[in-house]
Design a protein that fits this description.
alpha+beta; Aminopeptidase; eight-stranded mixed beta sheet; two-stranded antiparallel ribbon
């Protein structure tokens, strides 16, 4: 009986389900977001720029952002009083084919804003929504993109509100089922 119970527990631990809402930027909206603090948004030019997130993020996040930077993704950093208080990663698909990134497929001439985070101390000040809107407008203009996508976990209500406030429209859901080493992705 104990062996069967352990097997059931292991089985439950190996099943993981994640649901993400997917949004598309609507650049036709005339939205002006004024954050409650003045901060500066910069694009990381070198790894030492990214290392400045250690003010509010752990080493694992820093390593992930450095790896994204090394693969050519843009890393935007928000600074307030010389402290990094926000980061966002941007993948731009400048090819003529779809590219799969993690659980999302990016169409040609489109972009994906992801891996965003604002320091807990600075949340609720419209930094997230103003940052992703500014990023979307800038990369759309510079890269002549057809669309910009962003996603968030279905349980992350503050991000969902910030994304909508920034001028994105919800366009679907992605369900990711993980069972041991098998991953099943369903898009709706």
């Amino acid at each position: 009986m104990k062996i069967l119970q352990r097997s059931k527990n292991k089985f439950k631990k190996e099943i993981k389900i994640a649901i993400y809402f997917v949004y598309k930027f609507n650049s036709n909206r005339d939205i002006h977001i004024v954050p409650n603090i003045e901060y500066e948004l910069k694009i990381a030019k070198q790894i030492s720029d990214i290392e400045k997130i250690n003010f509010f993020r752990e080493q694992g996040t820093l390593n992930n952002l450095i790896n994204l930077f090394k693969t050519g993704e843009l890393i935007y950093l928000g600074f307030y009083e010389d402290k990094c208080i926000h980061h966002s990663a941007i993948f731009i698909n400048n090819t003529n084919r779809k590219i799969k990134k993690e659980y999302i497929t990016i169409p040609p001439q489109c972009s994906w804003i992801h891996y965003c985070n604002t320091s807990e101390k600075y949340r609720g000040k419209s930094i997230y929504s103003s940052t992703i809107r500014e990023i979307a407008l800038e990369i759309m203009k510079k890269n002549n993109l057809k669309a910009i996508f962003i996603d968030t976990d279905n349980k992350n209500m503050p991000s969902q509100k910030g994304i909508l406030k920034a001028g994105f429209d919800i366009i679907g859901k992605i369900y990711v089922f993980k069972f041991f080493k098998i991953k099943i992705i369903i898009r709706r």
